[in-house]
Amino acid sequence: MSPPTRSKLTRYWERYWFTPDTAEQLALVRVVTYTLLFAIYLPLDDRGWTQVSPVFWVPISAFHFLSGPPRNAVLIGVLQILWKTSLLTSAIGFLSRLSMAAAAALGFFLLGLPNCFGKIHHLDGFPVLLLGILALSRCADALSVDRTLRRGREIQSGVSAQYRWPVRLAQTLFLLVFFAAGLAKLRNGGLAWMTAANMRSIWLAELFTHTPPTQLGSFLAQSPWLSQFAAVATVIVELSALPALFVRRLRILVLVGLLGLQALIALMLGVYFTPHLVGYALFVPWERMRRAT
Amino acid sequence: MRMLPLRLASLAIIGFPAITCFDIATGLEHWPFGSYPMYSLRYAERLSWLRLYGLTDRGEIPLRDERDFAPFDEARLIVALQRLQSARGGNQKLDEALRNLMRLYNRGEARRLPVGAPLRALRLYAVSWDLRPGLQGSEPPTERILIAQATAAEAER
Question: ipTM of the assembly?
Fold first, then answer.
């Protein structure tokens, strides 16, 4: 690689990850993320898993270190309270380092535990990654109780590259989730995945395997053209998530498409990707909106 | 940025996407990373599934409510039962699973109002439908084969 090319790549790398941003923008991402996650997971109750037979136990990832399914419902209950409290204290930036580390570690355990009972649901993986990234970042440098207590009053924390990379990394992982889903369809189903017959079968099968809130799937399955369009559009929108990482104009279009896709999945299949709302929220220019108001 | 935060950031920037890309390339799952293969297989025009029915004094009723076997939801539970069905010693494991599910059902039922008819047994059927346009989701299966069952007495033991 010639030196000019390498320096161009280096510049692009630095611009992508380390373009300076304000502490307030990252702090607002923190506030929105932890508040949303608290609201979404408030009803979560893992204590029931302590009553499930070990015959269902298929540990994933780090859960292999457990000797079997947890049996202490009180302990799980306490961990849940600690986790939800840590989400709240992270949102307001109180005992920030400890709160965010606890939110990430307990989120890893509590959101991962149900996946050790036969099937991995892919709804909660991204929020756990996001909790991990925020715990490594300096997202409590502004708009936090800690900051206020330390200085006596809220102050501006300036502009730095360290306020940019956490959001950029989280955005990258979020879009890779969809690219992975599109690629898996082509790898496992081949080009035949994008046929009207396959799309129709998915919509109709979900009527029996899930409880969709509408009959939209049944209605649309009657049209071969709509089924065909939906199959091709799904794969194209999902695969477009990769180029959308680098092309800003495409990014907005793809995000709207992905949000629409997930809304239709909820209506037609009864599968709710609510935790992914925190991913879409990463792309909102919160500080600009705050200044505008 | 100072050197230490920069190194930490670079480690995260390389580490997180590297594991993600590894899982995407290999199709493996390392929670919380994954390859996101949901709905990626081609669906046949005939759906084969498992379904739980409760035997009451009035006959069999399909049990599909999200609260019936909490904390399981239907999708997770059926996939877990399919896994047990194809595992070594599957019959014994399915029997144990059904006894446990009946206890979960009774535990949930005790908290629900109005209290439904008590179950005399829990039955697991292999069910299938021919997927043709016009289906609403309420149609009975075109085929139903009993796989396993647990009685109330067995569940209490």
Answer: 0.90
Other Cβ atoms less than 10 A from the Cβ of A15: the count is 10
Contact yes or no for B43 and A169 at CB 8 A: no
Q: Is A233 on the interface with B (CB under 8 A)?
A: no
d(CA A97, CA A140): 8
> A115 contacts in B (CB within 8 Å)?
31
Position B1 pLDDT exceeds 80:
no
CB contacts, 8 Å: A61 with chain B: 29-32
Measured distance CA(B81)–CA(A254) in Å, rounded:
37
Angle at A91 between CA A86 and CA A94, to 5 degrees: 70
Residue B132 has pLDDT above 90, yes or no: yes
pLDDT in tens, B54-107: 998 888 999 988 888 989 999 999 999 999 999 887 788 999 999 999 999 988
Residues in chain A predicted with pLDDT less than 70, given as ranges, are 1-6, 152-157
Q: Is B71 within 8 Å of A48 when comparing Cβ atoms? A: yes
Q: What residues of chain A lie within 8 A of the CB of B40, using their CB? A: 181, 184-185, 187-189, 193
Which helix H or strand E contains A133, and what residues bound it? Answer: helix A125-136
How far apart are the CA of A293 and the nearest CA of chain B, in angstroms? 31
Residue A128 near residue A108 (C-beta atoms within 8 A): yes
pLDDT (tens digit per residue) in B98-131: 999 999 998 876 666 555 667 899 999 999 999 9
Q: How far apart are the first and last CA of chain B?
A: 65
Q: Which of B29, B64, B104 sits opposite A60 (nearest CB)?
A: B29
pLDDT of residue A156: 54
Long-range pairs of A35-38 with CB within 8 A, sequence gap ≥ 24? A35/A91, A36/A277, A36/A278, A36/A281, A37/A87, A37/A107, A37/A127, A37/A131, A37/A275, A37/A278, A38/A84, A38/A87, A38/A88, A38/A91
Condensed to tens digits (0 to 9), the pLDDT of residues A183-196 reads: 999 999 999 999 99
